[in-house]
TrEMBL record:
It comes from the Bacteria. It comes from Sulfoacidibacillus thermotolerans. This is Uncharacterized protein. Pfam families: Phage_TAC_18 (PF23812).
Amino acid sequence: MHSCPPGSKTPTIKHLQHVKKVTGKTPSLLAKYESSSVPHELRYIYKLFLDFYNGDKFSYSEFNAWQDYIGVELDFRERELIRQICLERQAFDIRRQQELMQHAQTNNKGGK
């Protein structure tokens, strides 16, 4: 939501917020995004994910070293949540790269 769609310079979230402001109606994608915010009880997990995530695969030894470094001892469920969020983010990043490549190929077809 905070990244720009292929071919645009405006993040999706900004575009949807503008539509809401102009029309007075909340676009369904914006409503879904706003309703799916991280619950207060899990925000600490999300903040830890943001601190840990480096865009690459990780091993449990790296994860344990990171825990030691920040001085936090997470239980199995908390570690699994962070691992799952990392995997989801990697999948999102891959889809995003594919979209950008597809957009670039589409725009370059007539340029030869």
